[in-house]
Queue: 2 jobs
Job 1
Amino acid sequence: EIPKIYAITPTHYRAVQKAELTRLSHTLMLVPNLHWVVVEDAESKTDLVTKLLAKTGMSYSHLNAATPKSWKPKAKEPRWVKPRGVLQRNTALQWLRDNVSPNEDGVIYFVDDDNSYSLEVFEEMRYLKGVGVWPVGLVGGLMVERPKINAEGKVTGWLTVWSPNRPFAIDMAGFAINLKLFHSKPNGKFSFESEKGYQESELLKHFVGSLNELEVKADNCTKVFVWHTRTEQANLAQEIKLRKENKPRSD
Ligand code: UDP
Ligand code: MN
């Protein structure tokens, strides 16, 4: 049996949510031996996500955890002010600790609902012994951010422009963690309190002692198999107007 990929997706309601999860599910459905852990940022599980997951026929776990109001991003606030998906990712990590055997072969990967994934990224991570890293496209104001690799094929730093001195200057989509390693470090989790942009570093410091332990994937970190795409907010101006006039379209 090939090692299982545990894909962790925080998700929250907005007009494009169903489209995002549909698109993402149609990628993940193509990945062999993947278990999808979907954590809704909501007080309770919604019908929308419940039905969508049931329709996929995938192996999945459906959880929910509402972000406390004080940590919820506000509509007009710049995107970087509050970290997103923190409580949901931690809820998924706790679920893994409680429900998945430490003897199982597998890896953990964080899959945001709006990113774009090539199937290749999942095969790069599947046999990791520790923590693996690879480039991420369309992030940090660049076409691609990637680990800096030396002649011995080891990571020596980060080819990023924004905050390159972070211990792990890498996006959430640019690494995965072996499940046994994860289980061996019971304190490994995210924190609302970490400095902005330090979520990945906050987590990885528990699992990686020095950069040369990182497993370099994607052809020496030269290939891009995942993109930090973002979806525009839906323009619902007419919808809102019709609702105000109390004549929503029914056709
Ligand atoms: N997310 C969430 N609650 C929120 C905002 C975001 O659960 O209040 C989820 C979102 O659905 C996504 C992840 O957290 O899967 C990262 O959020 P987003 O894509 O908005 O952040 P980015 O890193 O692209 O700025
Ligand atoms: Mn995103």
Job 2
Amino acid sequence: MLSEKSRPVIEQTIGVIAERIPAITPEFYKSMFNARPDLLDGMFSRSNQKNGTQPQALAGSIAAFASHLLNNPDSYPDEVLSRVAHKHASLGLLPEEYPTVHEHLFGAIAADLGDAATPEVVAAWDEVYWLMADALIKLEKGLYGQQANDVMFAPFTLISKEDIAEGVVAFEFEPADDTPLTHSIPGQYVTIQVKVKDGIRQPRQFTLVPSQEGHRRVVIRKDPQGEVTPILHEDINEGDVLEISNPYGDVVLDEGHGSLVLASAGIGTTPIVAFLDRLAKEGSQRKVTVLHADHSKDRWPGRQIMERLVDSLPNATMITWMETPGDGDYEGFMNVSEVDLDVDQDTTAFMCGPLPFMKGLRSQLIEKGVPGRNIHYEIFGPDQWMLHDEARKA
Ligand code: FAD
Ligand code: HEM
């Protein structure tokens, strides 16, 4: 809980800090990577730095955390903390690194605020930082404790590589040593480290899809502008060994009996396939509506497996939207307003795809009567949404 001494200081300064974050973050990262270039080797994504998504997410989350503490003094924003802790754990982040971020973030804040960074202001924000850091460190320790091994990454051999849609390849790995394998929950992801052109390691997350017992399987869309996926598609071959983390991620199916809406666009099918496979294995009787949007049938990753799984579930149906005329049930972008969705207060929805797709769909689902709190999503990059959209708490 925030101390009585810091509370009024945070109340007075949260506006200015939130407003200055876009200016503070580039300086924070510049100074941190100057002092610790090794953090760009295996820990931070260079591309997320360049495209600006990660810097805003990290610093922005501290302001969002402070705002939560002001409005709800007796609780923490559990959803935000859990997502970040899972991501951190998938990268093997250790508590020793928290003073590094503190030093460089606070150096940048002091430089930006100048005289306004009085000792009281710095002390109050210091308190917020360490409350958040301590909460994350505790969650991350708990996550590491749940693993079947005590390593952050283990070697895996690529045993098969299969084209499954236009620009999309499925990679199946088996352990290359005897590190015990943690059982994954459908919907979870792993971090894969890849050595890039200049020799440094770049980590990326990929959702686990159903595989043979004891294997890890991922389905990867090539981003032609990306740093890692072109290497995976073109230069990594059967027999090659890559370092892969334990499974993490908290976007997993609930244990309830209510109906489900599982919606994806493009490569966002990967968690949906994992969910459908779990439901099929459990012999689920739940009512499931699968929604998918894509450019065309040929670009739809996992089309065959989704069709098969939907067929095997007694109460599942699928509706598709394809930009290519004649390829889907509907033409163009997904619009659930045009279909008859049988949903109620117990319906849970999961979605995965580009942010504009998920924002639009969320509003449409709420319009149809799905409670906002039951709508969950996975985002394939640093989450800019959770932190800024209070509407999600509807
Ligand atoms: P990156 O190098 O990360 O580049 C991404 C984008 O950044 C580029 O398109 C470009 O627009 C921009 N960029 C790069 N460099 C610059 C620059 N210099 N200036 C400006 N912009 C730049 N992907 C899958 O295919 N399958 C999955 O199952 C999957 N699951 C995921 C699960 C989670 C939880 C997360 C977080 C991500 C998942 N992803 C998945 C996405 C994946 O991790 C990668 O982000 C994605 O594949 C792109 O990787 P890349 O290295 O090729 O591209
Ligand atoms: C990711 C917050 C400390 C390394 C993130 C994200 C947030 C965040 C919000 C984005 C999560 C997502 O949606 O994917 C914080 C906060 C910290 C903290 C509030 C301190 C209180 C650290 C430290 C390190 C670190 C100490 C390592 C030095 C990373 C990395 C990522 C990340 C590597 C993923 C980056 C990427 O994919 O580009 N953090 N973090 N974080 N964090 Fe932290």
